Amino acid sequence: MTEGPLSVYRARRGTGTLKADPAQELAAEKLQSLWHALKDYRPASGQTGWRARFGLTRRPDPAPQGLFIYGDVGRGKSMLMDLFYETVPVEQKVRVHFHAFMLEVHERLHAIRREGSVARKGGDEVVELSKQIAAKGWLLCFDEFHVTDVTNAMILGRLFTALFDQGIVMVATSNWAPEDLYKDGLNRQLFLPFIALLKEKLDVLHLASERDYRLARLMGAKVYHYPLGPATSAAMQRTFDDLTDGQAPEPVELTVQGRKVAVPRAARGVAWFSFDDLCAKPLGAGDYLAIATHFHTVLIDYVPKLSDAQRNEAKRFMTLIDALYEHKVNAVIAAEVAPERIYAEGTHAFEFQRTVSRMMEMQARDYLERTHLT
């Protein structure tokens, strides 16, 4: 049993695993306070047994205030939340990427509506959904909290009002302050009560670290590797591990206009694809834009030397690089040959020179220092 996230953070700093960072330490202290507050807290919705069946449960304690940590990419937000999640003495807890959570929300809500019993009884389907979520875990930890979709924006206020009514506690990391969520979105005035709810239920902390640890790691590594082989494969694995602090990757799916786009490996805002995953399948600009807005760094492995028979794959690769470039995504590429030789002859060879130019620019320090656009 550890003494909480702050002790683990300081121990890692003492061994040199982490560098001294006052902003990170302040966040660790805030998480430590919440860790203490949760030791003896249980929501009323989590009470079970005969007393609960007969309505004889104790009066619920007020839920501790959660924490919303925001700041620029690479400041250590996810790492700190992981320390908290791993050490907090709560059994019913869930840690999930916010995008994956919202996909599950829509799937569950669709299943509730399809089943129909809640509506037939005159119940609230969103409240029923909140009960299902709270039953799975009353401590909800969300990584990369962000709202861009109008459908998500319209449901969040009702859903989280119901969740907080059941005593859930929330911790979230985000690149945006609460007041900047869904900025300039359609009917944003309807979303503002949710922002007010977040500020009421969560303490808001700006992780204002001056150091971008993700960038520092990229600056110390090559972002274009060739030729393919064991050394290149090892370099790609090393880069992924460095950028994700060794977190085990998981497959995820992005929803684009009702379709699913598979991401084979993803962790902490970093995605790892093969060339075939992205360019040998019938993906288009919308799919690449979804990837570019969702991930700040994309690894593309096994890029082959292309012939004119692969002109469609070449065209998709061009569209992909354009999407990553326009959204300031950091791309780490492993290829069979140098950029200028990937597609030197063929139908789109002249246009491909622009892609080569962009790939070269994406290796430069001033590009790597640009802020990811989502």
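Next protein, fold it too.
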Amino acid sequence: MAKTYSLKFWIIFWSIAVIFLAGFYFFLEIRKQPGKIISQAIDFLPLELSQKAEYQSIAYFAEYLLKKDNQEKTFLLLFQNNMELRPGGGYIGSFGILKTKNGKVMEIGIHDLSNFDARIKEIIAPPYPMRETLRIDSWKLRDSNWSPDFLENAKKAEYFYHLGEGQENFDGIVAINTAVLNSFLKITGPVTLPDYSGIFTSENAFLSLEYQVEKGYAQQGIDKGERKTIMNELAEAIMEKVLALNNSQRFDLAKIILEDLNKKNIQLYFKDSALEAQAQKSGWAGEVKSSWKGDYLMLVDANLGAYKSDYYILRSFDYVVDLSSEIPKANLKITYIHNGKVKDWMTNNYQTYLRVYAPENTWLTNSADFGNVKFGTEFGKKYFGTLFTVPLNSTKTVEFIYTLKDLDLANYDLLIQKQSGISELLGKITVISKSGEKKSYDIRLENEWKLSEEK
């Protein structure tokens, strides 16, 4: 009997295929050429300057991965389900170990974290408020991405991997959100299977598969042990479409993966300092900009309700900064819309732990409706966090008022960074200058936004 794999296995499999087939496909034919020549060739492509920089970054990584140096390279792959959002992207349900050599995939192994985490000794207390909400006594790999900074998460994941007696030493770590599967299907197009009703598309594939392996199989009279055979059939159907893609479609696949990198649906960490510097330069390293000294804002949610409710959550924010007073003041309102209607196997009331990151010398003066606010400092920033619930089919707005000290008011600038796992974040920025002049900006945040680039 053919070996069957879980839904998580195939999502990671498809994600890896995207990275290797799409991201680097147009370099394969010229892989014997030095990376410098590839990079120079990109200069002549009819692309915008920013696009050229992105493709040159891909060329840089492609040269590393495709180099025929007889050196085995090993990567830890973290699958993050951003329908259950965590600070680093999403709940980690499984991980993969990928080995390459001379530009070829030599080996891949996929591991379910419910089994692997059982090997990790319960010696590390979880950060607040995991214990209080998830009722867990120890911190393990599945919850390791508690930071909004991927470098921190990558190191923590490797640390827990070795605590679980993992034997590999990694050259790099890659986090992949579920949105990458949807990107894959946008290019291959809809998929139908002979033994299953309906069409699998980029809009419904993950939900359809989740439902099939959780509920649908029983209604169809399929034995529980066979409920995941649909994954094999769907994988074969999609790979057939991949092999049939023409060059134009493959280029489209490369472009959509660039979008996932730019939206932080894929985050990269390399042990090699030059590669890591390139990832940071490209904005693909999931980095919290610790060197930024101006005004700063990052909103970081952690879904601690153990449901996939983020599928139904819409977020937006309104940030007003007043530089006309003696001490600059900021008013931040964040609105959550829960579009889930009733409790079911997938959703419930949305319970989140929100952390707001602001400049280090920020002082919170008021937080509407919150009595228990936690404070901390990291990455040269101050954060204040609070735990709250957004009921089903409701809207909730949380508000924070704080002062901003030690800012260069003559050269005021603002940087806003988006959390991985949120596809986009709508916001309105209003800046009241020292003279009282007011300017507003409506933004659609996909990675980061800088005020000085709008002037």
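About the second fold: The chain has twelve helices and 17 strands.
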